[in-house]
Write a structure and sequence with these properties.
The complex is a heterodimer of chains A (about 300) and B (about 250).
Chain A lengths: L21 H37 L1 E2 L7 E2 L3 H8 L1 H31 L7 H9 L6 H11 L7 H7 L13 H29 L3 H9 L4 H12 L1 H16 L3 H7 L10 H10 L4 H26 L1
Antiparallel strand pairs in A: 1-2
Helix pairs in contact in A: 1-13, 2-13, 3-7, 3-10, 3-12, 4-7, 5-11, 7-10, 7-11, 10-13, 12-13
Chain B lengths: L1 H26 L2 H8 L4 H32 L5 H9 L10 H10 L6 H26 L2 H9 L4 H12 L1 H17 L2 H6 L8 H11 L6 H34 L3
Helix pairs in contact in B: 1-12, 2-12, 3-6, 3-9, 6-9, 6-12, 7-8, 9-12, 11-12
Classes of the chains: A mainly alpha (about 300), B mainly alpha (about 250).
Chain lengths: ~300, ~250
């Protein structure tokens, strides 16, 4: 660290940084704080304060309008009786499991296909990633139109190919609604996850493959014995991102299925949202948020430990 | 060869929805006209979205560039604690602190405000942005800065005149991520904005589906999708290099 701003001496006359005068050090400290101050304000006011507030809110009867009243632990006790939330927990876990497995498989397949450079590979990478640049809400509306029985192109195409004989109830039954939502999520996120895996694949030295090949290893052997083990940290990261993202799913269900049919696709975050803005029970919503937050931080810590 | 056949089939599958949406939105030219007149007018929503994105990008760049420089080149008490607190934003699920943020912005007089929404976006962008900028400043040779300081510049002048120039690629990456996040986000504006006139595009267009229940104009809906998607697609294609680089160097290791 050089502290020579006020000095005009020759280069050879410069003292090494560690012998700089203490007064300048203090001013470096102040300067450092000034540069970091905006960060501190944003993190303090918009992150740490709401973190404390959400816990405080969860201990109060907190209507959307009107004064709050301390009522702990009622908001927490209420959660177990909230049938919608309990159902949502099971639904969200099911959704998370299916999505994570399929997303990993598809992303890995794509990454392996575009791993080696070659003519046109850049185009394919871009093509697979491009849906990721579209907002999730926009993507939901796109699928909403595309899978519509009267307006969308998918039904006529499937019928022309002889795959189906009548319009499919894409979001009309609980199972199909889940299926269609997962198709939407795969379309929107496969390229993103492919990109994550590509960074991991490219970190594997070419020599490792060459050595394996000269030892007579087949393609499947190379994949299971070399690629997968060496890709483990990257796969772990992708897994954590996918699990966290899926457990917090909201947009896809709000925009695309609207929780239907018959509340069969209501996710946990959707229940929190409804509690706050349909039932105006911010305290209850805060309690569910705290539970979700603790569960997710715990889960993330656990996954990071196990998967390292 | 069979690899290219598979790749082509997959590319069709991935690109088809975008191509179809573009086609469906233009099938009847009136789609965009109706869309323009919907609610407060698509112009209002686009302006709101553009304002929020602009404030988010500018705010994120300013806060993370100053902070990144501070973290890379200065020592001060509480430095590590602040850095960890910033990274902790990544650990806390987005959705769980939006409800207290809604209450908190009310205390600050920023409820239903595009400024309040932008500040929230800046906060969510900060872990990635600060991490990127700190690394970028650390990679700048110290000699560059020292030369300026020797010439009598204060650290701020050295920062604004010379160092900012040297970290331009990181600034572009951070700005691109901030734009895509703020332009596309649906949940935060849904909660933090409650007046139709201040809605951003995603909230406004999604509300088209519920307000016109039973008689949804699907063509108009797709023109809304296109208005939202096209700026992102163009920006992504133009700045793809920066996106991928940011991805490799920061987004994933935070």
């Amino acid at each position: 660290m050089t502290l020579t701003s006020s000095r005009s001496g020759t280069r050879s006359g410069r003292r090494p940084a560690h012998s700089a005068p203490p007064a300048r050090w203090r001013s470096r400290k102040v300067q450092g704080w000034l540069y970091a101050a905006p960060t501190a304000v944003i993190v303090g006011v918009l992150f740490l304060a709401p973190l404390v507030l959400v816990v405080w809110m969860s201990l109060n009867r907190w209507p959307l309008l009107g004064p709050a009243r301390f009522n702990a632990p009622d908001n927490y006790l209420k959660i177990a009786d909230n049938a919608l939330f309990v159902d949502a927990v099971f639904f969200t876990l099911k959704y998370t499991a299916i999505t994570t497995v399929l997303l990993s498989a598809v992303a890995l397949g794509l990454a392996l296909l575009v791993q080696e450079r070659g003519p046109g590979i850049g185009f394919f990478r871009t093509a697979f990633f491009l849906p990721g640049a579209v907002g999730f809400a926009a993507a939901g509306l796109l699928f909403y139109g595309m899978l519509n029985n009267d307006f969308g192109p998918v039904d006529p195409m499937l019928q022309a190919l002889g795959i189906t004989s009548e319009p499919v109830k894409w979001i009309g039954t609980p199972d199909m609604a889940l299926f269609s939502t997962i198709a939407l999520v795969l379309w929107r996120f496969a390229g993103f996850n492919m990109l994550i895996l590509l960074t991991g694949l490219q970190a594997i030295p070419v020599e490792v493959y060459e050595a394996a090949r000269s030892d007579g290893a087949g393609r499947w052997q190379i994949f299971t014995r070399i690629t997968l083990p060496l890709l483990r940290p990257t796969l772990a990261l992708m897994l954590i991102l996918s699990v966290t993202g899926s457990l917090l799913a909201f947009d896809q269900f709000f925009v695309f299925t609207n929780g239907g049919p018959d509340n069969s696709t209501v996710s946990m975050v959707m229940v929190i949202y409804r509690a706050a803005f349909f039932r105006f029970d911010l305290g209850g919503a805060a309690a569910m948020s705290v539970v979700l937050l603790v569960a997710l931080v715990g889960l993330n810590t656990l996954m990071m430990r196990r998967l390292r | 060869m069979s690899r290219y056949l598979t790749l082509s089939a997959l590319a069709v599958l991935f690109l088809f929805p975008l191509v179809w949406s573009g086609y469906a939105s233009m099938e009847e030219p009136s789609n965009y006209l109706e869309m323009a007149r919907f609610g407060e007018g698509v112009g209002t929503y686009t302006t709101n979205s553009a304002l929020v994105s602009f404030m988010t990008v500018a705010g994120t760049l300013a806060v993370s560039a100053l902070g990144g420089y501070g973290f890379a080149r200065f020592d001060f008490p509480g430095k590590n604690l602040l850095f960890l607190a910033t990274l902790a934003i990544l650990m806390v699920p987005y959705a769980t602190i939006l409800i207290p943020l809604y209450v908190l912005l009310g205390y600050l007089g920023l409820q239903n405000s595009l400024v309040g929404l932008s500040l929230v976006f800046v906060m969510f962008q900060l872990p990635f942005a600060l991490f990127m900028m700190r690394n970028a400043f650390e990679a700048v040779p110290r000699e560059l800065e020292e030369a300026a300081l020797v010439d009598g510049c204060g650290t701020f002048r050295a920062f604004s005149r010379i160092l900012l120039h040297a970290v331009r690629p990181a600034l572009i990456t951070v700005g691109l991520f901030a734009f895509l996040a703020s332009w596309n986000d649906f949940f935060a504006p849904l909660i933090l904005l409650n007046d139709g006139a201040s809605f951003t595009l995603p909230v406004a267009v999604v509300s088209m589906t519920s307000q016109t229940m039973g008689a949804i104009d699907y063509g108009m809906l797709q023109s809304g999708v296109m208005v939202m998607a096209i700026p992102c697609l163009i920006l992504f294609i133009v700045l793809q290099r920066h996106y991928v680089r940011g991805f490799m160097s920061g987004a994933l290791r935070g």
